[in-house]
Task: inverse folding
């Protein structure tokens, strides 16, 4: 998630901007830049790829004097990692500069229209399109705020947008839709940022912009409006957090923050990708991920990954089989890279990775490509190594995942993989109706995920009862068997408790020997084709006096009669249920680990990205 800062102050804007961006570094970024209204009335811009120190060096070599400015750390979404793509972006006249967080869904259409009017672009970003739109609108509107509002009437998508205009040197205009912006005022100065940590040294009294609001900041004052032009009375919030807490938006750990971010980031993953459900799924550059000619040649799909990403692949196998009608194998990358598996031009290899830097996954993909397979990546980190080793990339847009235990990356991987499976099925002329029904349900998945998160208090109570146990068995069937594996991995990763996931149908083939009085068994028994079978498994555990924890549909009395603890989830179509059912298991692992005093964001022995074998 990018970092945004802005100021109209009585001090050196460059220093204020750099300090603010440094407060937002934890969010992850790949380039940074500032634009300052200099003393000669021009807008001076400095941008650098890499860490803030490179931008700081550039500003020391070429200082900019001024007290009004904006700054940005970019986590690339549209367009690769380069100085040209770094923010701020100047408009074609150089009169105004723009920084932006979010995703403009219709930027390609807008860019084509602007090009048709003779505009020449220098970057691959959707943000430059915004700068050009505002510049055009400024010709027919007397104020920057009016021009920003006019430009936004053409825009679809998520944005936190900040603009400076050299014709209004003591004005900052910002607007928000789905991407956070917060304002702080003090005597004769105004500050803004994408997150509270950048403001705390100036004020604890802040104003959070709401969706579809626009703000006009001046020295020590702000005027708020709706996009429709209605004045809005600013609501001031007193921040009680210290800086450390503020980096986690008040959550105790990044992992908990990232669990709670899932509804928002799932919405961003889907932005501009479901449409009418007929067009092919494309890369962010607009290239089809799988052409009809390629799809016609495919004989098999191989999903390759490690850890949590491998669990996402196991779920996706159900969707590729059902919607694309192809045989699917899901391989651990560490195994596939050394196996003489039949990979060739008739194979679609899909590598799944949050970091895009996992050594085994990279090696497996390189080997598959060497043998002629068509390789795609479902990845979160833009510009990561994996994106350069594959024929096409589908970004999960989860934003930086700081907690070592993967949560929002997993659910956004599932959403992206379902989009890909449905697109491949469409391209192969199969299962159009079933795919359309699933995509319709996927479009609204943020709401049931939010409701699953809202059950956290009950999950917290269950965790307090379960925390003393040192062995857990997780059971699931069908599309929720991988969710059992993922729930077990979450628990073992951050609480160091031994936990294993198993297909529930395998219980009689060994694991049932583990069960005695009080042995905790976590089951997923939500409605679907295997629901009755899962109830039978619950009976078997109960007969041996095991302690039964069940992820079940809210209000399910049959499960309630068997379980010691129910972790309730909203009911969704069975095929989509892993995206919702994993949430209580993430929260259960978190609260058990918390109860055991474990280091949740940095568990012992683990790295966020395993870049070595
Ligand atoms: C998951 O919680 C772990 N952090 C780990 O299993 C992780 O999923 C695995 O190392 C793969 O990482 P990647 O998705 O970045 O490739």
Result:
């Amino acid at each position: 998630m990018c970092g945004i800062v802005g100021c109209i102050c009585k001090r050196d804007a460059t220093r204020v901007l750099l300090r603010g961006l440094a407060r937002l570094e934890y969010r992850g970024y790949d380039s940074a830049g500032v634009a300052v209204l200099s003393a000669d009335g021009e807008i001076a811009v400095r941008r650098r790829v890499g860490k803030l120190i490179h931008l700081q060096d550039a500003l020391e070599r070429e200082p900019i004097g001024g007290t009004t400015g904006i700054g940005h750390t970019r986590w690339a979404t549209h367009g690769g990692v380069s100085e040209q793509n770094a923010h701020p972006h100047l408009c074609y006249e150089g009169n105004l500069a723009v920084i932006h967080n979010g995703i403009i869904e219709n930027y390609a259409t807008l860019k084509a229209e602007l090009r048709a009017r003779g505009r020449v672009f220098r970057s691959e970003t959707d943000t430059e399109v915004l700068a050009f739109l505002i510049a055009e609108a400024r010709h027919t509107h007397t104020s920057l705020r009016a021009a920003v509002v006019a430009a936004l009437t053409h825009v679809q998508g998520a944005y936190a947008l900040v603009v400076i205009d050299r014709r209004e040197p003591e004005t900052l205009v910002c607007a928000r839709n789905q991407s956070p912006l917060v304002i702080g005022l003090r005597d004769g100065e105004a500050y803004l940022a994408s997150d509270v940590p950048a403001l705390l040294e100036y004020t604890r009294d802040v104003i959070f912009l709401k969706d579809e609001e626009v703000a006009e900041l001046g020295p020590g004052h702000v005027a708020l409006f709706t996009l429709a032009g209605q004045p809005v009375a600013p609501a001031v919030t007193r921040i009680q957090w210290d800086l450390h807490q503020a980096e986690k938006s008040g959550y105790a750990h990044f992992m908990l923050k990232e669990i709670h971010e899932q509804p928002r980031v799932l919405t961003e993953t889907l932005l501009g990708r479901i449409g009418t459900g007929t067009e092919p799924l494309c890369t962010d550059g607009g290239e089809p991920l799988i052409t009809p000619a390629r799809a016609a040649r495919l004989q098999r799909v191989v999903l390759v990954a490690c850890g949590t990403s491998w669990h996402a692949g196991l779920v996706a196998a159900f969707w590729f089989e059902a919607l694309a009608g192809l045989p699917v194998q899901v391989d651990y990358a560490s195994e596939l890279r050394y196996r003489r598996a039949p990979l060739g031009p008739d194979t679609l290899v899909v590598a799944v990775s949050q970091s895009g830097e996992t050594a085994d996954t990279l090696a497996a993909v390189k080997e598959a490509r060497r043998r002629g397979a068509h390789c795609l990546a479902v990845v979160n980190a833009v510009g990561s190594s994996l994106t350069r080793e594959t024929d096409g990339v589908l970004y999960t847009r989860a934003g930086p995942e700081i907690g070592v235990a993967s949560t929002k990356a997993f659910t956004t991987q599932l959403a992206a993989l379902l989009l890909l499976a449905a697109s491949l099925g469409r391209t192969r002329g199969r299962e159009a109706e079933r795919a359309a029904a699933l995509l319709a349900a996927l479009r609204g998945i943020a709401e049931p995920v939010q409701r699953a998160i809202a059950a956290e208090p009950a999950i917290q109570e269950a965790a307090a009862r379960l925390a003393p146990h040192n062995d857990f068995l997780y059971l699931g069937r069908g599309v929720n068997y991988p969710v059992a594996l993922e729930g077990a991995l979450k628990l073992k990763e951050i609480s160091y408790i031994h936990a294993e996931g198993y297909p529930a149908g395998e219980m009689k083939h060994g694991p049932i020997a583990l069960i005695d009085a009080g042995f905790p068994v976590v089951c997923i028994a939500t409605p679907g084709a295997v629901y009755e079978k899962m109830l039978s498994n619950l009976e078997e555990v109960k007969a041996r006096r095991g302690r039964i924890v069940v992820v079940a549909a809210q209000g399910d009395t049959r499960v309630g009669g068997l379980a010691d603890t129910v972790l309730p989830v909203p009911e969704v179509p069975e095929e989509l249920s892993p995206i919702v059912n994993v949430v209580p298991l993430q929260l259960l692992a978190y609260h058990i680990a918390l109860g055991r005093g474990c280091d949740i964001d940095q568990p012992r022995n683990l790295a966020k990205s395993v870049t070595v074998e």
The mean pLDDT is 93. Residues 306-309, 353-355, 358, 361, 404-406, 493, 609-610 surround 2-deoxy-2-amino glucitol-6-phosphate (CB under 6 Å).
